[in-house]
Amino acid sequence: MKRITNNQSGFTLMELLVSMTIFLVVLGLSSGIFLQTLRSQRAVVGITEAMNNVTLALEQIAREARTGFAFESEGQLGELRFRNGFGNYVAYGLIGDIESGVIGRCESPGSAGCDLVDDLEPITSADVKVDSLKFFLQNNANQPPLVTVAIGVELDKSAPPLVMQTSVSSRIINPGGNE
Amino acid sequence: MDKSDLNNRQKGQLLIEAMVAVSLMLVGLLGIFGVLSRSLGLSRVAADQFVAVNLASEGIEIAKNILDSNYKAGAAWNAGFSTDGTNYRVGYQSEVLNAPGCKKELYLNSQGYYDCQAVSGVSSKFTRVLEVENVGPNQLNVISKVNWTGRGGLKSEIEVEDHFYSWRYPAAQS
Prior knowledge:
The structure holds 2 protein chains of 2 kinds.
Chain A: H1 2-8, H2 13-66, E1 75-77, E2 79-83, E3 89-94, E4 103-108, E5 121-122, E6 130-138, E7 146-153, E8 162-169
Chain B: H1 2-73, E1 85-88, E2 102-108, E3 114-117, E4 122-135, E5 139-149, E6 155-165
Antiparallel strand pairs in B: 1-4, 2-3, 2-4, 4-5, 5-6
């Protein structure tokens, strides 16, 4: 009788300690790895999202400016204004103030249709923080209009923003003239 | 005695089994973690490629702008491009190939643009050269090459090629 009771009595303190230690170590390691994995997964998705949005916006601006004419003013600009291939008035710029971080576009058949700040409609996601949008417009009699677009985007809070830049030369080299 | 011996041996096996199981699990988890952190690195490589492609197509557009400027000025259609070469440098403000001070390294200038002039610029990792190849008197091939070295020392290159023709001009006799 006594033997049986001894056999049935539960684990010793030593066994309990060892098993709990192993359990805790495993739990700590795996949850640490899991958290780190979640974090890096979020970073990857963020970078992909940012690159997709910025590339799309850059491509859209470049395509429209390529067949554009009647570009307004020159030099460094925060907002690009011209008439597109359909003859409509188009404006690109950051929506509202620079804090919003969203690129906007406006198209209007009338020359004053894009003059209000609210006229710009977003073309990038609100989840992507566009740090800067700059246009450099070379608009003179010696060359076709050449638009340089530089978009700075925040990929990582600790790193400086990544700058994506491209230039596009308008194919309409003699607006109003006989081609 | 027999019984306690047996019991002890069984306990030892239990511990070893547990340790094997735990280490197998950890190896698996570390594998997943390794793949994910590699994907983070690769997404940065992809970001660099996006930048490089845009810079390469900028080189082509600048060449197009110079060629169209020739037309506006009434010059020969390929003025400045008539000599083949593999090491032409341009920047976003260039009006000719190899403008004075224009280097193949690209610098982020104080206004925030990638420029070929080193003045007041922070050097970026990108370099760009244009290759010019004349194919007969009426065709011109321009290849824009952007090179950079990534974070892990990985050297990469993006190449964009475009062909220009003298369609605005009466055909030259070959």
